[in-house]
From TrEMBL, chains A, B, C, D:
Name of the featured protein: TetR/AcrR family transcriptional regulator
Source species of the chain: Streptomyces durmitorensis
Keyword annotations of the record: DNA-binding, Transcription, Transcription regulation
Segments traversing the membrane: none
Domain HTH tetR-type span(s) in chain numbering: 4-64
Keyword DNA-binding carried by entry: yes
Length: 212, 212, 212, 212
DNA sequence: GATGAATGAGCCTTCATTCAT
DNA sequence: AATGAATGAAGGCTCATTCAT
């Protein structure tokens, strides 16, 4: 069996075990078992527990970003009208893709969101890169929406950044919730968040704020 | 030294170490050291690592809920006019209390939010109880707000629940963000979230929704 | 059982196993077994294989130097005439003590001479210190002998150093030989070397050299 | 590439690695790498780590003995006057050859002297054979020297054996010393030992002994 | 003839946990 | 009430060794 295939099997197993047990509690023995190979082979290909975990993070981060990108580009119309979608449709498509992907690979999401971020520096930095990529994308969407609405730039740049953080944070949180509670589909989660967020953003763009 | 005091010292130490190292990486040796007692004494009082961790979770969960409750009840006017505050003021007070408390006890927040939820079943259930309590409270606030606005109950119960989840999730996410990034105060975090959320909720109560 | 005693037992066992198997081939498991304790206790007291080996080297080096010193000081006459012995008697006493000690503790000698010196830098340096101490002592003896013989200092300092090296080297080598081949007693080994060396030194002090 | 050549390359690599790392710490992987072949090929030709090590010992022992023999036979005059050299010239030639050879192949010397002798029985015996051959040769030289001096055989056979042991031991020790300390050439080492030894031997042949 | 792929076994190290005092 | 002393069990990692090709 070629090396590349075996490596993917190992990463599959590792993501599963890391997701279920946590980084520390996961044992290389169990990972090798689940991958259907011997432990030395895991070391031969991936060198150490640390590198194995890093490889998992990288693969899953790339897969998630790719999924969201594909969702946004593909849009709703089926790939024809590329790039021309309005900001709200792009956000909607991105959220759907995000919730779908995380629902399909719950262990991967746990690894990225819950495990990697709580295991200290070599790993946290790895996910931080991906997250910033997504935050930047959302930020650009909000800014574009403001432009589309032909408003004077009522929203300061710093404020937009804060809103993007809140939106991404809410999405992350809902992903965990939707996965944990089986009765919520990806589409429902996306709709809930879209409703919650888009209306709020619209109001803010009108300059209406809540003050104590 | 009375037993109750010693126990609190141990829990203090445990929360700190669990928060900094994670459940698995934390060693009973270090906890006993930091607590200034011998290891067997820790076992005498708290039986096992698992029970010790559970005790930490319970204590900190109770403290957090109590802080939020106190914030809401105390309100802005100083404790006199109980229960009479409008829903938005109550939410505002609760958010402020939440962000303040988590900022004051970062290790405790890490234990509750990052560690307990990722260490499997005995522990995840423990925090889930507390979280549900808070979600229920937020849900009641949203419902009350709808009543105050004298609308027909346009918002289905299920929908309200989803919104509460999103709001709580966003708050949790922002708490981590605010603690990690020193430049954001509790009040700022609360204001960001309040702006984001209240406008959206208001719109929804008016029956305006985003549809694809 | 008090800690100090246990530590000596562990060192006894370690010296034996390191001597018989070599540093790498010796297993902490076997050492713990032979010491009659569990492996974690060995780690609790001596931290690591490396530190354990270093502790062995230090203890045995000190013991060997002490034995030689005691032999020289005690002299043949029984401790009365301290310090006044002529150089040849001192050398004779030192050699006897050296061969006696190495014969009594063959594993310790193997550890010092064969193992420690071939396991790279943390360890080699440790024995080098002891060896230099002995070489310095022998050097001073040769120089004193030259003075006693009322010769002009025919022997250059560098030459004396080389002779000391050769003498110590010969002694080290004979120690291994005498221990390996049971029919040679410590006294015989000392006599052989004394005969071999003292005559040669005497000749050299007379200025007689072998030239091709 | 013919098998014999490949085998020599492997032995070259093995001697180097065994010498630098020690028997246990040397890995078959590294040896195969350095030899420029794959690991299974090493096993195909040399069967096991143990046999590989044994093969190294045998080859290097034979090479060393051959070098010394050649030095003695070749003598100073260039190979013409075989066998006629006096004993001291033969010893001088042998020592020079010995120190030259060990200086040229330091790893080989480490393998023979430091590693093989400390790795237990299969290997120690292998070098012992070679050493005895050399000791026997030196013994015969001393005896011949005594004859040449026309003395009655004052030196008992047992005594001669002891002296040969001491001389060989001193040479072994000086070899390590000279290789480790770069400032000593083969010729210097040989001269130091020759001076030290021949005078002592001469004295003994005259019947002058050191007595306590 | 030669090797890429794979593994059983073992070693160093750590940790939660328990007695005897 | 409190602890010094001690351990069973497990985990990360490496290595000599073997097939199928």
């Amino acid at each position: 069996m070629p090396r590349a295939v075996r490596e993917q099997q190992m990463l599959d197993a590792a993501v599963r075990i890391f997701g279920q047990r946590g980084y520390r509690a996961a044992s290389m023995d169990e990972i090798a078992d689940v991958a259907g190979v011997s432990k030395p082979l895991v070391y031969l290909y991936l060198n150490s527990k640390e590198e194995l975990f890093t490889a998992c993070i990288r693969r899953e981060a790339a897969a998630l970003v790719a999924a969201v990108r594909a969702g946004v580009s593909g849009g709703e119309g089926g790939g024809g009208v590329r790039g021309g979608l309005p900001a709200d449709r792009q956000l909607w498509a991105g959220l759907q893709a995000f919730f779908t992907h995380t629902a399909e690979r719950p262990d991967a999401w746990v690894v990225l969101h819950n495990q990697a971020r709580t295991q200290g520096e070599p790993f946290a930095a790895e996910v931080a890169v991906m997250r910033e990529e997504i935050v930047a994308f959302v930020t650009s969407l909000i800014a574009e929406a403001a432009r589309e609405a032909h408003r004077k730039p009522e929203l300061a740049e710093r404020e937009v950044a804060g809103l993007a953080q809140a939106l991404v944070g809410a999405a992350e949180s809902l992903a965990g919730w939707a996965n944990g509670d089986a009765s919520v589909s990806a589409k429902e989660a996306a709709a809930t968040l879209m409703n919650f967020a888009w209306a709020g953003l619209g109001e803010l763009m009108e300059g209406r704020r809540w003050v104590p």
